[in-house]
Amino acid sequence: MFKKILIANRGEIALRVIRTCREMGIKTVAVYSTADKDSLHVKFADEAVCIGKPASAESYLNMAHIMAAAEITNADAIHPGYGFLAENAKFAKICGDHGIKFIGPTPEMIDAMGDKITAKDTMIKAGVPVVPGGGGLLQSIEEAKSIAKEIGYPVILKATAGGGGKGMRIVWEESELERNLDMAKTEAAAAFKNDGVYMEKFVEEPRHIEIQVAGDQYGTACHLSERDCSIQRRHQKLVEESPSPFMTDELRDKMGAAAIKACNAINYEGVGTIEFLVDKHRNFYFMEMNTRIQVEHCVTEEVINYDLIKEQIKIAAGEKVSGKNYLPQMCAIECRINAEDPYNDFRPSPGKITVLHTPGGHGVRVDSHVYAGYVIPPYYDSMIAKLIAVAQTRKEAIDTMSRALSEYVIEGVKTTIPFHQQLMRDENFISGNFTTKFLETFKLK
């Protein structure tokens, strides 16, 4: 087992990793930008090293500074958390070249799943259902028109190196295709320095349902059931839950088996997530694989009583996974509490938290790095907490979440708490009647 782990991240995920390491008897090193010098992950780690200025490029994305911090503290492993360098194959390789274990998959596995075209080809060969569409990057408008005619409108254009909705356009008829293709390529080039775009059939009334997986270096893989992440705004998840209210036993078996096929196709090592689109007829299609721990991993932990961070570290240290597939034993819902103003198009609201009261009680979990007096910097993601409610039934989980939200007091900045409070009272959400398009018609009162 590792003696010391450096966490190449910030905020609540860095704190989450530190807590698990402490339980496992592993020393920790926090890295931080000058903007994060007062963050809790800096205070709770055994050691802390400043790695640069507030801008991510000068700190949390600065591989040389992070590796220097690992070397001077004699860390024998690096946990990347999520975001930043978590799915960066170059960084994973640099860690290996310096004799430091990257807690995650190999660079080759990250590359295999990081490019959406390559990942889709891999899934087709493995027998995993994929959304119908072109087999590669679009080379011309004529090719785009031909593929669209073959698979039928509507279609969706996606950046091959993309994420978070960047370089993505829905096209409903041929007259809109050329303009949207140009816009998608321009946006992809600006966001990812790669203007490659491909086309798929647009799945109407979709659910976004993902399967948590774990695999070891000995070829064993298992799934840990599903999470429904359909409540999204501009392709950014706001609420996640398990089990999905749309799930059936038959569909869970099929999706779980497909997720394991996906892992076996690349001999996946580590924890990860296979993301699927599921249509109204419960047909499911591979969307992408996230080769890292995800923000919403807490939901899975609560419904199966399983520490995914601990499992991730054990796998990296060479231990085997059980090979057992897990089914939800409870119901859990996670609300992402962001420093954003839901009444002003979710505009970021950095600043000083003047008053903070965190909810508690049976069935409530809060993962956060903030405290009264903490200043939320404007340089990073606006998420400041994850509020998780767990209960025997979905209705009870919603009731627990509603109660917890009513107790959550954050003053000094705007937050998404009012949005979540109204969502928990919405009849369509309560009944499980929603798709990824739900928020397009949801009106905040």
Structure description:
- There is one protein chain.
- Strands 13-12-9-10-11-14-21-19 form an eight-stranded antiparallel beta sheet, sandwiched between helices.
- The protein has three domains: 4-103, Rossmann fold (3-Layer(aba) Sandwich); 132-201, ATP-grasp fold, A domain (Dna Ligase, domain 1, 2-Layer Sandwich); 207-440, ATP-grasp fold, B domain (D-amino Acid Aminotransferase, Chain A, domain 1).
- It has 14 helices and 22 strands.
- Helix 4 (89-97) packs antiparallel against helix 5 (107-114) and helix 6 packs across helix 9 (249-265).
- With 445 residues, the chain is of the alpha+beta class.
- Helical residues, percent: 25-40%
Q: Count the strands? A: 22
Indicate the proportion of strand residues. 25-35%
CATH class of the largest domain: Alpha Beta
Rough outline: globular
- The side-by-side strand order for the widest beta sheet comes to 13-12-9-10-11-14-21-19
Separation of termini? 52 Å
Assign the CATH architecture of the largest domain. Answer: 2-Layer Sandwich
- What oligomeric state do the depicted chains represent? single chain
CATH superfamily membership of the largest domain: ATP-grasp fold, B domain
* Count of alpha/pi helices: 14
CATH topology of the largest domain: D-amino Acid Aminotransferase, Chain A, domain 1
| Low-pLDDT ranges | none
Biggest sheet record: 8 strands, antiparallel
What count of domains describes the coordinates?
Answer: 3
